[in-house]
Amino acid sequence: MARRLQLRLLTWDVKDTLLRPHQPIGEEYATKARAHGLEVEAAALEQAFWQVYRAQSLSFPNYGLSHGLTSRQWWLDVVLQTFHRAGVQDARAVAPIADQLYKDFSNPCTWQVLQGAEATLRECQKRGLRLAVVSNFDRRLEGILVGLGLREHFEFVLTSEAAGWPKPDPRIFREALRLAQVEPAAAAHVGDSYPLDYKGARAIGMHSFLVAGPEPLDPEVKDSIPQEHILPSLPHLLPALDHLESSPPQL
């Protein structure tokens, strides 16, 4: 008879898995600009932000640490470039806005805990699971989680800035397993990104669940993941864990 799988550790992504900003990025940027006397369309800022963010992440991955940048410098540059792309040419006018936005996104009040997150974390702990964070976030994450009342659920918070490697680099997952002293087969990761979270964790032998949300999944992604690994919402994790632990030990 096959031995029953027993998970010991659940690692968690944070942004768009457990929490997200109260306002869309473009609206947040536009609101702060208005407070400094600049009128910029939120939609233009939203589009510009994602273009700049993707380019910055490619040119200076993981907050540019290997290029001698700090995460704060990295983010300030993202804000300056976002406003420039949205039509604001005066960098001196944007500098105080960038500084204020960096502070605001350090503040727990800027973030909201997603529906079902806290109850799901509590239920996982009741089941005896150890919980930890593995996130491509910067040094501000610890304080944000404390302020939102979520930090108490996790044994440790491992950010890509602290680890030196961003997901899906296997080294950040291996570091989490080392900190927890758990083998990959006894651990699972929960996140909303197919390449970073789902595939990244499975590449080193962990189990994994993809938080898909209400929007339809890309057909290629959906076809490559067992249905029981897809979570339409966080409360779906609990029956998914039951299914996984009642199955023969395998990936």
TrEMBL record:
Organism for this UniProt entry: Camelus bactrianus
SUPFAM superfamilies to which the protein is assigned, alphabetical: HAD-like (SSF56784)
PANTHER family referenced in this protein's UniProt entry, alphabetically: HALOACID DEHALOGENASE-LIKE HYDROLASE DOMAIN-CONTAINING PROTEIN 3 (PTHR46191:SF2), PTHR46191
Descriptive protein name: Haloacid dehalogenase-like hydrolase domain-containing protein 3
Family: Belongs to the HAD-like hydrolase superfamily.
InterPro entries hit by this protein: HAD-like_hydrolase_domain, HAD-like_sf, HAD-SF_hydro_IA, HAD-SF_hydro_IA_REG-2-like, HAD-SF_hydro_IA_REG-2-like_cap, HAD_sf
GO CC entries: nucleus
